Amino acid sequence: MNNFDENLDKAVESYEKNFDKVANTVDKVATGVNRLRIGCITLFVNLFFAAFCLWGAYAASVSWKLQTAGEVTTGTVTRLEESKTSEGYCCLYTPVVEFQANGQTYSFENGSASDSVDYTVGSDVNVRYDPANPNTAQIDNVIERWLFPVLIIPSMIFAALITNFFSFRAWRRGDDSLYE
After folding, report:
1. β-bridge partners, 140
2. Tell me: the pLDDT tens digits for 31-75?
3. Between 142-173 and 2-69, two packed helices, what is the crossing angle to 10 degrees?
């Protein structure tokens, strides 16, 4: 019986050691999976921010090109495009402007919509257009041309910095959540 108790004690001790090894391995795998999850989330969020920064940079490059090489002419608001807000409420108004360049008539929908009617049908507006490609045109208003790039680029960079700070902190700590 004494020999049986010793063998039982050895078996229990061996079982506990193996169980501890398995538990440690499971913890390491769980930490690795969590770090991979945090890394993937961070990557996709940064790609989202980068896409908006690129959109802002494109808008800034178009505005810069029109500012430096564009010509100014007079256009006429031909209609107001009505659309719903992202929440489904009515109404946002976007002016559609027609102007003449190189003996041809061009029309464009302004890039900014407003819930107030800033332009009226039939009113004259200054249009800044690219003489090489008159289809690239904007209402000649500094705020309308530069507001989007000036707001979106810094805000996306700031959001990316904050997200990366918390993601890196969670990754280093091995936290289950990014914002603990």
Report:
1. none
2. 788 888 888 999 999 999 999 999 999 999 999 999 999 999 999
3. 170
How would DSSP label each residue in 85-152? -TTS-EEEEEEEEEEEETTEEEEEE-S--BSS--S-TT-EEEEEEETTEEEEEEES-HHHHHHHHHHH
Residue from 53, 114, 60 nearest 83 by CA: 114
Asked if omega into 91 is within 30° of 0 (cis), the reply is: yes
The DSSP letter of residue 176 is S
pTM of the entire predicted model: 0.73
134 in Cβ contact with 106 (< 8 Å)? yes
* Weakly modelled stretches of the chain, pLDDT under 50: none
Residue with tokens 């107030």: 116
Its CATH architecture, for the domain 68-149, is: Beta Barrel (2.40)
How far is it, in rounded angstroms, from Cα 178 to Cα 54? 26
Cα separations in angstroms, 160 against 41, 49, 96 = 12, 7, 35
